[in-house]
Amino acid sequence: MRNLDQQNQSQGDEFLTVISEVQCLFGEHPVSYQKWVSDGVTGESLIFSDDTDLPDTKTLIQQMRESGLVREDSQVTTAQRVGRLFVNFNFQ
To answer: pLDDT tens digits, residue range 18-40?
Structure first.
């Protein structure tokens, strides 16, 4: 795991600090898995490349929930940016 302590990134208009990031697979899909903090809120993201053959977003989120990665009570948000699909979850 690569620790990116205090690295600021822009996801759209909001700035966030990536706490840690690791390149891994979700099923057969290569992803970047991030833990981050923004304005006092912590969360996690799986970042998929748009050129990956992904299921529709609803199915993908269901697969993430079934995997145990996403807490049952967690809201899930998505965003398409710069050729990537961001799936954000486990906000605290």
So the answer is: 999 999 999 999 999 999 999 99
- Distance (Å, whole) CA 49 – CA 80: 10
Give the closest residue to 45 by CA, choosing from 92, 89, 80. 89
Q: Residue 57, CB half-sphere, CA atoms under 13 Å: how many?
A: 12
CATH number of 2-89: 3.30.200
pLDDT tens across 41-72, in order? 999 999 999 777 899 999 999 999 999 999 99
The domains of the chain are located at 2-89
Backbone φ and ψ of 16, nearest 5°:
-140, 160
